[in-house]
Amino acid sequence: MMKVLVTIPVEQEHREYLEKIGKKIGEKTGKALEFYYVPRGGATKEQVLQADIILGNVPPEFLKDAKHLKFLQLDSAGAVEYASDKVMPEGAKLANATGAYGLAISEYMLGCVLMLRKKLNLYQDNMKRHEWKDEGMVLSIADTVTLVVGLGDIGGQFARKMSALGSRVIGVRRNQSKCPDYLDELHLTEELDELLPRADIVACSLPGTAETEGMFHLERLKKMKKGAILLNVGRGSLIPSEALLEVLESGHLGGAAIDVAEIEPLPASSPLWDAPNLLITPHVSGNYHMKQILDTAVKIAGENLSAFLEGKELKNEVDFSTGYRKFQG
Q1: Residue 129 bears catalytic tag
Q2: Sign (positive/negative) of CA torsion 237, 209, 292, 54?
Q3: Most buried of 67, 201, 207, 302 (most Cβ within 10 A)?
Q4: CA distances (Å), 42 to each of 5, 63, 191, 265, in order?
Q5: Would you say the pTM of this structure is higher than 0.90?
Q6: Distance CA 12, CA 5 (A)
């Protein structure tokens, strides 16, 4: 009997879906599965140590001694904190949930762009002060240049939306690959500094790695076009808070939107709360704030559960050397 620990916050329909897969695999392979469901964030170390398969995130520090663990399917797109031989038990496979969050987060990003380009944040502030005040000229998305840094599911879906609205979209990624139809240009990360001065909108959806920490430091932010908008939905470590504050207060950037911060929760004393033209949300653009996210995360988990037990290729298998899913071209 293989024990499957599920920490994804599944509903009854999702349990039935997973258990139907388990029953089908059991009949086909003779590998009977027993499912255990615990609240998200509620898994104990003992439960992790007893599991053969885990569907959902658990505290990384529980995993090294999980000698029974053969496969961990995360319900997050980020996997860096798990992708280390100091975290995962030897021989265990790891996959992330890339594909579950792109729709929700790309729509959030588009909403932020529209809010800042149309000064809706200023009008909302005026409304609270009961001020009937014209804030002047606004900007369009059409005929802009959008630079998308990180072309996973989230970045790719955002790029498609901006292209559809008439923006010239430039993609930046780590690996050379064929340029998809929704991009006008595709470049490698080392070309970033040359591309920043061209962009009206810079959108970042990168994971938190040693390579991305502090990547958008002050000198790099100053290379952005004056009046440009910066979005960050990846990890807060990408942009030092002091640097972001400086380019906003100086007026170099026209605005920014961050769903992540260097320190989370962002302290109430942080000067970022009062920075001009900065939209701050508390890491909620994805999470499980749309039912579609949960449905897709469970679907990915179910498909990979079946693939793993049948010895087939996993979707979104993580490369332990990079912390990203394995490159597929």
Answers
A1: no
A2: negative
A3: 201
A4: 11, 15, 43, 20
A5: yes
A6: 16
**Any idea which residue has 């969050």 for tokens?**
101
Q: pLDDT grade, residue 327 (50/70/90)?
A: low
Per the residue annotation, which of 198, 217, 283, 303 is the catalytic one? 283
Please list the residues that pair with 231 across neighbouring strands: 203, 257
- How large is the greatest C-alpha to C-alpha distance in the chain, in angstroms? 71
Task: Tell me the pLDDT tens digit for each residue of 259-277.
Answer: 999 999 999 999 999 999 9
**pLDDT, tens digit, for every residue of 84-137?**
768 999 999 999 999 999 999 999 999 999 999 999 999 999 999 999 999 999
3-state SS of the chain? CEEEEECCCCCHHHHHHHHHHHHHHHHHHCCCEEEEECCCCCCCHHHHHHCCEEECCCCHHHCCCCCCCCEEECCCCCCCCCCCCCCCCCCCEEECCCCCCHHHHHHHHHHHHHHHHCCHHHHHHHHHCCCCCCCCCCCCCCCCEEEEECCCHHHHHHHHHHHHCCCEEEEEECCCCCCCCCCCEEEEHHHHHHHHHHCCEEEECCCCCCCCCCCCCHHHHCCCCCCCEEEECCCHHHCCHHHHHHHHHCCCCCEEEECCCCCCCCCCCCHHHHCCCEEECCCCCCCCCCHHHHHHHHHHHHHHHHHHHCCCCCCCEECCCCCCECCCC
Q: Is 192 exposed, middle or buried (0-12, 13-18, 19+ CB in 10 A)?
A: middle
Q: Out of 61, 194, 211, 264, pick the active-site residue.
A: 264
Return the closest-CA partner of residue 306 out of 296, 298, 314.
314
The span from the CA of 104 to the CA of 92, in Å, is: 30
Respond yes or no: is residue 14 known to be catalytic.
Answer: no
Residue 9 tokens, joined: 């916050």
Question: How many angstroms separate the CA atoms of 314 and 317, rounded?
Answer: 6
Token pair recorded at residue 210: 């040693």
Phi/psi at 262 (5° precision): -55, -45
Could you confirm whether 187 is annotated as catalytic? no
